[in-house]
Amino acid sequence: MNNPTNYVRLGVLALLWGSSFLLIKLALGALSPTQIALTRIVLGAAVLVALCALRGLRLSSDRKLWRHIAVAALFGSALPWVLFGLGEQTVDSGLTGVLNATTPLWTVLFGLFAGREAMPPARLGGLLLGFFGVLLIFAPWQGGSLLDWGVLACLGAAVSYGIGYVYIGRNLTGDHGLPPLTLAAMQMIAATGYALLALPLDGLRPVGWDPLALLAVAVLGIFGTGLAFAINYRIIGEEGATTASTVAYLMPIVSVLLGWLLLGEELGLRVLLGMAIVLLGVALTRRSTTPKPVAAPEIEEDEMSNQLRTQPTTRTDELPPIGRLSAWARFRLALLRGSQLYAELASNHPMK
Q: Which intervals hold domain EamA (predicted)?
């Protein structure tokens, strides 16, 4: 990494997000799923808005942008957090973390349906392998299958994340003039509205007095949502999104270990093997199959460099004809043309 401190940040982020399933399980001792989601969102929004204020960042008033934010907030925050709370009423926190690890698979799948994701053989193989791991976890061929309404709710949360990420990639990336931290704060504000609308479902009951449960939801909102978002954006800013995304491999491990150590949860060998296969599938779907651009050769005092000095080189069709150069110069010019063509294609890629 460019900054060794980001190893620590990545570990903290994995701990915060991996422990969120444990915290939800503890919070259910005093609050309903919608109460947990609302509290988490409000506290996370407060932290993010405060960070924006400290950095002098202002929220946008663009209505079109807010409409996109509202969709992202529904599928990327409010809906999955309610579903996780509903699911963990019957599902262990460790298994919830394993099911959450399928999110990148759903993201790739919905990206394919939306026409925004290429599907080279390695990525297709990773997708199929990952869903085979999910099938192994559920084991529908066994009488005591894990496939019940709670598991379906947790899986639905991962599916919702996948829809949200694809939508964000299509509508909230690019040049909109706002830093990611501001967009995150806006997303949490919009998610607050959805959580309030969902509150009548099961959130009007009295909140139980359980100090551990109340502390758990406070930690979940302040640290697991607000602070974790800020850490994630710091890593993305310094190391890139690819490095930051490695937290997806650490989260299920953290959730399984915490559930085993603190709640006495146990996952069978089949579920652990399924988790490993899912993570391997996720790794394959994230492999880049695009060749790296070839660096342009160093300009020297030869016949090619003399001709290049007299002609613009910003476009490949303006380079000197290959037929006028020597064999060595033709080879080097072909590499240069290839690298420029790659750069033009990459700069106009729809996912940029």
A: 13-138, 149-285
